[in-house]
Amino acid sequence: MARKFFVGGNFKMNGSKESIKEIVEALNTLEIPDSVEVVISPPALYVHWAALHLTNPKVAIAAQNAFPQISGAYTGEISAPQIKDVGAEWVILGHSERRTIIKEADDFIAEKTMHALKHEVGVILCVGELLEEREAGKTLAVVFRQLDAVTDKVSDWSNIVVAYEPVWAIGTGLAATPEDAEAVHDDIRKHLAEKIGKEQADGVRIIYGGSVNGANAKTFNSCPDIDGYLVGGASLKPEFKDIILSRQ
Ligand code: 13P
User: Fold this and answer.
1) 4 and 33 in contact (C-beta within 8 Å)?
2) Does the annotation count 89 as an active-site position?
């Protein structure tokens, strides 16, 4: 089954009105092939701003988090309907920075995933192991545990993109090798097949994140289970376009 190449740009807590407008305007004039889907994720404050300036129908917007309630007394939080209301169609959930710094638990991330999907917001679900977990041979156990929190609650994965982001590769300049990343992606797909069925698992995009840049993106092109990238630092730079156009 053909899976559409997916490139996400996670701006994290970076940017200003001016710099985000510049990035959006650069994307507006970029010729993006029909075979590529691009999603940018500015900080929540700038989601609406980005949506106001975006004119390229091949680019969508994601929030970086959502709380699993529609509205109410949840100071500082945002809901999936609000995300949609200001022009975004996706949300990043389970990012390692939220798992480790904010201490979000697997179950909470699964609840958020259910909430977003229920309100028709697509989910970029991040999973990945810490360096010490990799060194202890626990990569798959960790990744499967993070995935199973969601497979236990969600049976329809058609609006989920899985982002495998080994924590040791994030922001370090040391991307996983294509061989190491492909091996984990292949294992994730096999695991998903057991949990949600082979047909669905074959359709789920599994994208790689961790120090992807304009120069190394092409090195993953021969990996059959790497369906795109979730890009941090390089999504703020002109080289983001090289990543978007890397699989030609
Ligand atoms: P870097 O591309 O900066 O390593 O960040 C990856 C990431 O965390 C994307 O969500």
Assistant:
1) no
2) no
5-244: CATH superfamily = Aldolase class I (3.20.20.70)
Catalytic residue among 133, 165, 182, 185, which?
Answer: 165
Q: Is 166 in the pocket of ligand 1 (CB under 6 A)?
A: no
| Atom in ligand 1 nearest the alpha carbon of residue 234 | 2
- Alpha-carbon span 51 to 183, nearest angstrom: 36
Q: Whose CA is nearest to atom 7 of ligand 1?
A: 232
The domains of the chain are located at 5-244
Q: Nearest CA to 25 among 245, 214, 217, 240?
A: 240
Ligand 1 atom at minimum distance from 95 CA: 10
**For residue 1, is pLDDT > 60?**
no
- pLDDT, one tens digit per residue, over 114-136 is 999 999 999 999 999 999 999 99
Q: Please tell me if the CB atom of residue 214 comes closer than 6 angstroms to any atom of ligand 1.
A: no
- Asked whether the predicted pLDDT for residue 25 surpasses 60, the reply is yes
**CB of 15 sitting under 6 A from ligand 1:** no
Q: Which of 160, 153, 43 is nearest to 106 (CA)?
A: 153
Q: Which residues contact 13 (CB under 8 A, 6 or more apart)?
A: 43
Q: For every residue of 12-28, which 3-state class applies, written as one string? A: CCCCCHHHHHHHHHHHH
